[in-house]
Automatic annotation (TrEMBL):
Function (record text): May be an activator protein for the gylABX operon.
Organism: Streptomyces apricus
Boundaries of every HTH iclR-type domain copy: 2-61
Pfam families: HTH_IclR, IclR_C
Superkingdom of the source species: Bacteria
Protein name, per record: Glycerol operon regulatory protein
Domain IclR-ED: 62-245
Keywords for this protein: Activator, DNA-binding, Glycerol metabolism, Transcription, Transcription regulation
Amino acid sequence: MSQTVDRALSILPLLAEGPADLGQVADRLDVHKSTALRLLRTLHEHGLVYRQSDQRYRLGARLFALAQEAVENLDVREIAHPHLVRLNESCGHTVHLAVHEDGEVLYIDKVESRYPVRMYSRIGKPVAITVAAVAKLLLADLPEPERRALAEKLDYPMYTSRSTPSAPAFLRELDKVREQGWATDLGGHEESINCVAAPVRGTDGRVVAAMSVSAPNVVVTADELLTLLPLVRRTADAISGEYSGRTPTKENSS
């Protein structure tokens, strides 16, 4: 039974390359045509493959519907949380997860620092969109016309002397973040708080969330926090791999 299932599933990546006839399927599976036909008929009955008028087979609409349903039901917070906890246990600092929704960037998860000095961020609360590292990552991934339109309608409050002062400066920062693949907020929102962030990507490579590590100067300096960047990026990559189905749902690579 397991061999039959394995052979049937092996047909799907073959057809993902393009339509194939019975002989091609049989050759790829190294089985007799009658065996290949039986497998194709079963997949066809379930809507996973479709037989064209030229007698070649292609992937069926049901497969795409299932894939879309699976993507829509993915909960990035649920997938990310164990990784965030492990990162927090490793470094001790506050860890956040954020998403971009309806023009706002919101925290959807937080693991508190083990140090006495805590951050006042809350799950469900919008971030300071023009300075927060997670916001920079999420907005940098938008198509260029959307980035520009959004930047031009934002206000640019000067929370500190390091805050982003204007739309042109913000767009330059987003270009930089887009190129390097990570972001920081070094005293841009609060003079004493620094943050480093990395993106969580979906199957299409687009940024679906952003995660960060934040800490006050009294605990670690900005330079010390930046040494955690490789660990933060590995954690984000591990979440991305699990979210997109590229890696098994085991512990992250960090």
